[in-house]
Amino acid sequence: MPKKDKREKERVMEEVGFDVPDGFSIHSSDEISMFDIDNIESDDVETFLIRMPHELLPADLDTIKVNLKPDNPAHPLGRMRKAGSRFQIYEFTDQSASSNINAMGGLEMDGLRCLFPSSKRHGALSMTQKPFDHRLIINQVVDIPDSTSQAQEILDKPITKRTHPEGLKMRFHPYGFDTKGPHANGIPTTPTIPSKRTFEEADIDQSILSSPSKAKKEKKEKKDKKVEKKEKKEKKDKKKSKVESM
Q: Which residues lie in Basic residues bias regions (predicted)?
């Protein structure tokens, strides 16, 4: 490596605060590899960014086949299996991002860029300005069981009364407590209104039952007092005007 480039690299490393770990040394190479940034940014090379579950390994992708031009963007590009699990492969595009097809996400992939070695910089990593040609998302297929039979089993299960400790007495009977439900035994039923006897059994103060008539009586007494007061005032005014006329 020329001294000028070496000094530049040391300056950058000092700025970012990077120290070479013990047992390692800085390596530089002028060899051109297949992953050289100049090769990657060529129009003849396609780059793929793949997001996959942690159950999969890169080696699992060696044999998969995908159709990069599906008839429907909502359809998977390919399928794969591993250890009894099924996976589907989709491509994240601008269209899928706007419509959120299959709710697969992938928005974080839109701004990712990759680092590649550059032979012009003696093997230093450089960020490519070329976006990924394809962004693939591998999702695991989760089988949701049909709950119809389970729901029917719950519906057919007979309803049993809750058992209570001995010595307890039910004192409150809510409205409709005695109702057996619509069309019980094939005969339409109507809700029953708790009778006076029901309140007596519940040890409820009988003043609650008579409260409407009591309120009516109090209202009448107030009205009579108001009339009586008005009559007294009229008599007093009449008597006063008579005295003044004399």
A: 214-223, 232-246
